[in-house]
Request: fold
Amino acid sequence: MHDFVYKNKNLFCENIKVQDLAARFGTPLHIYSYNTLMDHFIKLRKAFSAIQALICYSVKANSNLAILKVLVNLGAGLDIVSGGELFRALKVGCPANKIVYASVGKTEAEIATAITEGILFFNVESLPELMSIDRIACQLGKITRVAIRINPDVEAKTHKFITTGKITNKFGIDLNNAYKILLLRNKFRNVKICGLHIHIGSQITESAPFVAAIKKVADFIRKLESKGISLEYLNIGGGLGIIYANEAPQTAQVYANEVVPLLKSTGLKIIMEPGRFIVGNAGILVTKVLYIKNTPKKKFVIVDGGMNDLIRPALYGAYHNILPLRKISKTEKADVVGPICESGDFLAKERLIANVKEGDYLAVMSAGAYGFSMSSNYNSRLRAAEVMVSKNKVCVIRKRETYADLVRNELLFKAK
Ligand code: LLP
Reply:
């Protein structure tokens, strides 16, 4: 479900015609629906209400402060992966005890700040990292908490770049080593190991891989208990897939029905870290057609949004539906490409696209997650503006960059 629908042949975001937004704010433009954003969060919370799971929205999916604030106001915690994300989380007033911090490469400074701020726990990805956290906490005279990120070695059945729970991936700690670490838990005087964490990948459309991973950790938790090691939290990560084309992903309720009994059996407090499920279909990227170029072999629809605005097609071959803002029934096969000087700069390849002409607009659908947050200034292009719509109201939640922004931190080299 989302709030981008055609009414009388025009694409609307809630009650506002998208074409009016494009004309008013310019393109490329990220547009978010407040209602869709809230709805997805609430659906997930409802599905997991029996175990009152804490939903820590994964900031990396879309880290705009306005988006974070909406979710924090609804009671979400946040899943962070850097000092920058911690800064954002605190800036929107997320209580520190609702922040969990993953990443294989946390720096000393990032660890120190997170300890000082009193986050709920770190998701620890290696023994050297655990030792580092212990040492830094000792220097700060604090006791801090960690969950061990388990690499459960399961196949997530998704794109290989976004699979994280196979033993060949850089993430987490295998069960044997995790066990050894847990046996040594009292050696880490400034760290309390309070839980386990898993995150097996992203855009996972069926429940089986989640179930397999949770079963493995649930068994592990039972083994730990039999050895007198008791924990407080199980963090089951994110990864819930959404509809980009014709996927039929599990709904929040189906997912919950499958995993809640397993989670209940652990007796632990449950945390989850969804990103894409909450924000993916709450956003679109609107781009303007600059030129139609017909070559002997192909038709190219050249638009003003490129791989710097949405890198998913270039990076993963990801599919995003592309719709005209004003419905056109005639379609033609074309590549939709951006202005960037790379052949990998495409939004769609060999796609039946509405027969648009110069000056028309296209909406790249499902661009709310890993869209703006992965955007860049490549080719010295200005990063796009972002707006949020609620019913008849629109707010700019990020101004379009200016040329001054582009060179703000650059200094000329002085030989002497
Ligand atoms: N927790 C951890 C530890 C993660 O690494 C991630 C995503 C999440 C939660 C949230 O996962 P989600 O619910 O959004 O699937 N750029 C890629 C996706 C990379 C995901 C990275 N980790 C894409 O555009 O498909």
Summary: The longest strand covers residues 283-294. Residues 58, 60-61, 79, 102, 162, 199, 202-203, 237-240, 273-277, 312, 369-370 surround LLP (CB under 6 Å). The two ends are 61 Å apart (CA to CA). The CA atoms of residues 192 and 409 lie 41 Å apart.
